[in-house]
Amino acid sequence: MINNKKSNILLLFLIISITLAGCTSNKSSKELTLVKQEQLILGTFGSISAYSNSEKEGNEAISKAYDRIKEIENLMSTSIEGSDVYNMNKKAGVESIAVNPSTMEVLLEGLEYSSITKEAFNIGLGSLIELWGIGKDWQKVPTSEEIADAKKHIDLNKLEVSKENNTAFIKDPKILVDLGGIAKGYAVDESIRILKENGIKSGVVNLGGDVYALGTKTDGSKWRIGINNPEIGSSNSIARISISDKSVVTSGDYERYFIENGVRYHHIIDPKTGIPANNGLVSVTIVSDKSIDGDVLSTASFILGLDEGLKLIESRPGVEGLLITKDRQVYVSSGLKDAVEILDNNFKIVN
C-alpha cells in the first residue's frame, strides 16, 4: 500500500507550529505562556496547543482535554472490546444495549445527517468499509457480487435508538455501525469545551487534520490554517484560510488509499455505489463553528460532487467550504472568498 496521510498531517502540524511561533505581541506575550502536547490518539496524531497564564495551568487543561478524547475513543471505537460501538455490533440482530449519553449524542447526529445529506453520509457503512479494508491487511478490490451483498446491510432504518433510555439496537445482524466519520470531529469539539472550561481562550486543537482554532493569536490576529496540496507526492499548502473560533476539516482522495493493477482506490466510499467516490473532486475543506459538522460535511460533500456538494454547504448555517477538482480548480462558498489566500499559482479560484 502507498499511503501519505501521515506526511500530510505532519505538514499541517508544521504549518500550525510555525503560526504559533510567529505570534508576536507586546504585553500579551509576556503574560501568556504557550503550552503544547502531542499524542498518538484516535489512531492518528494529536496536537493541542494553548496559551495560558502558566505552564502548569496550560498542561492541566490540555491533559483534561486528552482525557476526554480518550474517553470518547473508548466509547466509540469499532475495535476496542467493550466500547459502545463494539457492543452494538456484537449484539446486532440479538438485543439492544445501553450506551453512554455521549455515544447517543453522536448516533443521533449521524442519523440526522444521513437525512440532511441524502444518505451520502452513513454511520452504518461498516460492512462496506470492512469489505474494502483500506489501510488494513486484507485491503483489496471486492467483486461486484461482494459489493452488492454488503450494500444490502447499510440501511439505517434498521438502527433503532432511544434517547430517553440511552439504548441502541441494530436489527440487521450484518449491519456494522462505524462512527469513524463523525467521532473525531465530536472529540475536537469536546476538547475545545474542556479547554474553555479551564480558562483557555487561545489555542489550536488538531486531531489528525481536524483542526479547531480557538480565539485569536495573542496579537489579536486570526489563525492561518494551511490547505494541503491534494496531489499525490506533494507536500506544500496550496492555500490558507484565516479564522478564529472556527473548525477546519478536509477530506480528500489522497489521504488513505491503495493501488491495485495500476488503479488507485481511496477510502471515501459512496454508499449508493459501494465503491470509492469518483466525481472529479480531490479535496473538500469545510469551515464551520463545530468540528463535528466539518467532519461529516467534508465527507458528504466529497461524495455528492461539486454542484451538489456546494449546494449542501451553502444550505447549512455557519458552514463554508472549499472544493478542489482534479484539474486544480478551486471553488469556494460565498462566505469564504475573502478569507482564502491562494499560495500555489497552479491552483486557481474559479467561482
UniProtKB/TrEMBL annotation:
What catalytic reaction does the record list? Answer: L-threonyl-[protein] + FAD = FMN-L-threonyl-[protein] + AMP + H(+)
User: Which cofactor does this sequence's record say it needs?
Assistant: Mg(2+)
**Which EC class is the enzyme in?**
transferase
Top-level taxonomic group: Bacteria
Q: What is its main location?
A: membrane
GO molecular function terms attached to this record: transferase activity
Q: What does this protein do?
A: Flavin transferase that catalyzes the transfer of the FMN moiety of FAD and its covalent binding to the hydroxyl group of a threonine residue in a target flavoprotein.
Q: Kindly provide the name given to this protein in its UniProt entry.
A: FAD:protein FMN transferase
Native organism: Alkaliphilus flagellatus
